[in-house]
Each structure stands twice: as structure tokens, then as C-alpha cells.
Design a protein that fits this description.
Elements (H helix, E strand, L loop, with lengths): L5 H9 L16 H12 L7 H18 L9 H24 L4 H22 L6 H16 L29 E2 L5 H8 L8 E3 L18 H8 L3 E6 L9 E6 H13 L10 E6 L1 H4 L1 H4 L27 E7 L4 E5 L5 E7 L2 E6 L4 H4 L31 E5 L3 E5 L4 E6 L3 E7 L1
Parallel strand pairs: 1-2
Antiparallel strand pairs: 2-11, 3-4, 3-5, 5-6, 6-13, 7-12, 8-11, 8-13, 9-10, 9-12
Helix pairs in contact: 1-4, 2-3, 3-4, 4-5, 5-6
Length: 428
């Protein structure tokens, strides 16, 4: 087991609570909250007695209660900041306890896992506002995770078993234009700026052959993924898809997600009546930066898209990266996104169907907040309720490992995993 320098980790956390000027972000929480917070942060070397732990937990509970009162995008900064800082104060107490019981390996490991769950959950839910909070939290999580389970080499781990049988794949009647050699950069830029709109491209030309995720640090290696992130907390979607009334999102240890959904499916032992689970559209690489070392942003994401009817503005950040990881059968219902998208298929195969934005009326979008999602269930379309859908033209493909799909802005797309699947989308 890798040695864990608890003293150094505590020192890094202590440094976050030395600047009194940062209290301004917490001011809107109220005087009583500020008083308790200041009192606790001033005695951060004594965070292991029962009364102090109860007070820190009270701040965490208060912050979580306040977060539930608002749509996430409208949560006041003060409550997100309180959740992050109170969680880091509790993490200091856990590090103290770990330091006191280093001779008891079982208890130290239990405390380490509790620390990861605490800080990871705060990181995901709060967004880690405050100076250096994200960087220090990520360093802390990485050190504790590495200490808990050193990463095996690619040769040592268990690998997913993936089918190569093509006889059961869906038939493709209306194929997407396929390129078998890498397109010229300027040609690609010209293509995505075509008027009135660009068309999708199926790129079967080795654009991922240099990715460690596809080669030397393969994401088919379950033990490699567990070594990097087995104890990390990730948001998992539970349910057939996000339009299902029973759909929910759950914070879950990566190891539990892999064991309960990925490996059981691999062993054909999926629990009866267990709903599918999907780690979907999550910024996994911002959350677990070590995984980002296994991929690279395609050069094509740095072309210059021109504004159009379908692409009104670029993403708020450089290139937005999302991870999609789940068992066979997971579905993203027919929907559209506002940006250019390169979808990279790292593990497994997916069936993808696309409709032009010119067909939007025939796809019957929802009203309100879900206006980017069709009401039509592609797996069982109700043509009595949605008659125009039957005549809407589309294109389709099977996206295999090592392949990419260019999806233009506002093109409607339906995605179904044909195997255990790991994909990365790049919005630009």
C-alpha cells in the first residue's frame, strides 16, 4: 500500500481557512451561521470531539437543506460555499482520526472511504466555490484514492468481455456518410459551416488510435478503472431514460456502480426488475482529472464554427467533455443539443439515429424545460398520437470502438448501447 502523508494533507486543508477576506461569499448565510463557521474554522485542529463534529454536521445539513429549495442553477453562492467549506472542515477531523489510528488498518481504510464520500459529494453538489477549494479537494481525493488501491497495469486487470458478433446488430437502411481516412482540417471546418446546415459524419479513420484509453490504459480494464476511481462518488442515472417518471439520479461509489450494473450485466446476472443505470453526460474529467490523461481532445474541435440559425453561440468554456458509461441497453431518448459534437466511442458499440432539425415538427418536442427532447418513444412509437413521425427521414449508424461521430448542432439523435459502453462527447 502506498504511504499516505496525512500531515501534509492536513496542512493543505488548513491553508484554506487562513484568509478571513473570503468570508464575504458566506455573508448571505446569516450572522449565526458565520459565527459558528468562524468558531469551527478557528479550532480546526480540534475537530474530533463529539460536540464539534455535531456542529460541523449541522452546517452541512443546513447547506444541503437550502440547496433543495432552489433549481440548481439558482442556488445562492453562499450555500454552495458553506457546503464545500463545512465538508472540508469535517475532512480535517477525519484526517486527524486517521492519524491517530494508523496502526489499525481496517479503521484507517474505513475513514479514508468516508472522507472520499464526504468531499466528493460536496465537490459534485457544490461545484467547489472558493479560492483553491477545487484544486485542494482533487489533490486530497487523488492521494487518498491512490493510497486505498494502487492502479494495476493494463496486463494485470480484469477486462470486459465484448461481443464481436455482428449478426444480432440492427440493420442499417439509411447510413450516415462515412469517412475512412482522416479529413483535412480545413475541409472539416468548411463542412461544419455548410449552409443551410451541416450533415453528420461517421469517422472510421483511427482518430483514437493514440489514446491510452483505447490502447495502453484500456478502459475495458475494470481493475484499472477501479484503481483510478473505485472509491470516488459519481452521479448515476437510474431508470430507462430521463423522460421516464421513475427516473432518478443517485450519488454512488464507482465500484458499486461497476459491480452492481456493469459486471452483473457482463455475467448475464442482471437483477430481475432492476432498472438500468447510466453514468451519463457527466463531466467526469473535471471531477477525476487522472482519467483525462487517457484521452485527447480531437484537433477538429478547434475549428472556427460560424454562427447560424442552428448554432447561435459557442459553449461557455473551451471544449465541453462528457463521459457516458453504462451497460448494454442504456438509452438516450431522441433529443438535440445546441453545439457541434464529436462523439468518441471508446468501449463497446452503439446504435445511433439522427434527424435533421428541419424535421422538428414531426418529432413533437416537449414543451417547457424539456423542449430539446422528443415526446416520441423510438422503441415503441405511438403513431396515433404522433402521426407525422412515421414519415420523418433519418440517418443511422452503428458506432464501434475507436470510431467517432460528428453530430451537427440541433440535430436530433437517439442513442442505444448495444454492449457495455464507454463514450466521450466533445462539444465545441
Amino acid at each position: 500500500m502506498v504511504l499516505l502523508d496525512v500531515h501534509l494533507l492536513k496542512k493543505k486543508l488548513y491553508s484554506l481557512f487562513q484568509n478571513e477576506n473570503e468570508l464575504e461569499e458566506l455573508a448571505a448565510c446569516g450572522d449565526s451561521v458565520i459565527f459558528l463557521y468562524c468558531n469551527l474554522s478557528a479550532q480546526h485542529t480540534k475537530l474530533t470531539n463529539e460536540m464539534t463534529i455535531q456542529q460541523v454536521d449541522a452546517l452541512i445539513d443546513l447547506a444541503n437543506e437550502q440547496l433543495l429549495l432552489y433549481p440548481y442553477k439558482d442556488v445562492p453562492l453562499c450555500w454552495r460555499r458553506l457546503l464545500m467549506d463545512a465538508s472540508l472542515l469535517k475532512a480535517l477531523g477525519l484526517l486527524d482520526l486517521m492519524e491517530q489510528c494508523l496502526d489499525d488498518s481496517k479503521e484507517t481504510i474505513r475513514l479514508g472511504k468516508e472522507l472520499i464520500m464526504l468531499v466528493d459529494t460536496a465537490l459534485v453538489v457544490s461545484g467547489a466555490p472558493g479560492n483553491s477549494r477545487r484544486d485542494v479537494s482533487l489533490a486530497l481525493l487523488n492521494d487518498v484514492q491512490t493510497w486505498l488501491r494502487p492502479t494495476p497495469s493494463d496486463r494485470e486487470g480484469r477486462h470486459l468481455t465484448l461481443s464481436t458478433d455482428s449478426s444480432t446488430l440492427p440493420s442499417i437502411h439509411y447510413p450516415i456518410t462515412t469517412l475512412y481516412s482522416p479529413p483535412d482540417y480545413l475541409w472539416f471546418e468548411s463542412h461544419i459551416n455548410e449552409t443551410p446546415m451541416a450533415s453528420p459524419l461517421h469517422l472510421q479513420c483511427g482518430l483514437m488510435n493514440h489514446w491510452p484509453a483505447y490502447t495502453t490504459r484500456s478502459w475495458t480494464n475494470i481493475d484499472y478503472l477501479l484503481g483510478l476511481a473505485g472509491d470516488r462518488i459519481v452521479p448515476v442515472e437510474i431508470g430507462s431514460n430521463y423522460t421516464d417518471p421513475s427516473w432518478q439520479q443517485k450519488m454512488m461509489r464507482m465500484e458499486d456502480f461497476i459491480n452492481d450494473y456493469i459486471l452483473l450485466e457482463q455475467q448475464q446476472q442482471q437483477r430481475q426488475h432492476q432498472p438500468p443505470a447510466y453514468l451519463a453526460q457527466h463531466d467526469l474529467f473535471h471531477h477525476i482529472p487522472t482519467l483525462e490523461n487517457d484521452i485527447s481532445v480531437p484537433d477538429y474541435c478547434y475549428v472556427e464554427p460560424q454562427p447560424s440559425e442552428w448554432y447561435t453561440q459557442p459553449p461557455p468554456s473551451d471544449v465541453i467533455k462528457h463521459a457516458w458509461f453504462g451497460p448494454q441497453g442504456t438509452v438516450s431518448p431522441l433529443h438535440q443539443d445546441p453545439y457541434h459534437n464529436l462523439l468518441a466511442q471508446v468501449v463497446g458499440r452503439k446504435y445511433i439515429r439522427l434527424y435533421s432539425p428541419a424535421q422538428s415538427d414531426a418529432l413533437y418536442p416537449h414543451d417547457g424545460m424539456m423542449s430539446n427532447t422528443s415526446q416520441v418513444d423510438l422503441d415503441s412509437p405511438d403513431l396515433t398520437s404522433y402521426p407525422r413521425f412515421a414519415d420523418a427521414p433519418y440517418v443511422e449508424c452503428i458506432l464501434g470502438p475507436g470510431e467517432m461521430l460528428y453530430i451537427p448542432p440541433k440535430w436530433w439523435h437517439y442513442v442505444r448501447s448495444l454492449d457495455t459502453s464507454f463514450s466521450v462527447s466533445f462539444w465545441f
